[in-house]
Amino acid sequence: MKIILASASPRRQELISLISQDVVCHPSGVEEVIPQGLEAEEIPLCLAFQKAEEVAKLYPDTLVIGSDTGVILGEEILGKPADKDEARRMITELSGRTHKVVTGCALFQKGRSMGFKAVTEVEFYPLTEKEIEDYINTSEPYDKAGAYGIQGRASLFVKGIKGDYFNVVGLPVAELKRKIEKFLEEA
To answer: Are 104 and 44 in contact (CB under 8 A)?
Structure first.
């Protein structure tokens, strides 16, 4: 099955290959707009729809998948840090606490669409200042929501997870596979 992945994320590109080997990556250039009053947990799904819808205009007959992942602490969504100070603030806030990782996935094909979100809870150990400084001095935090990648050095911070590990990496592949099958059956 051919899939167009509306993402530039190397992690998503790797994970989608578990579902199909026939994947073309076409990142969306859409300007992400978050409607006023939208709850933090709904933002990733909203952005996933925006990305997929934009790319689906170019590939109307092919299955297009858009995805967006957010790290949410309380009601704050932690995006990608702009610099060391922001990365330090984010990792410090996550230290010793449980947060949610929410990935929204949107599927488009032939004028039809559907979406879902996956939620995983991640608990960090309390971190020392040295652990935080050592981490933010690597290149790892700067292209990832919440300033960390669970599959890298930040795995040493994780006390436990409740939910789909791959959702935290950036794509809930097991659930996505099932949603794709259902979506295509209903066509």
So the answer is: yes
